[in-house]
Amino acid sequence: MANKAIFSLVLLVISGRLVLSDITFNFDNACSFPVWLSASPSIGDGDPERGPGTLEVFSMSDPWTGSIWLRTKCSYDASQVNFTCETGDCGSGSPDCQSPPPNPPVTLLNFGINQNVVSYEVSLNSGFNVPVRIQPNGGTLVEGGSGECPVVDCIKDMGDVCDPSLVAKNKDGAYVGCNSPCIALKDPKYCCTESFTGPACQPNDYSKRFKQLCQLAHTYPGDTDPPIYKCSGATSYTVTFCPL
Question: From the centroid of its chain, how far is CA 223?
Answer without folding.
Answer: 17
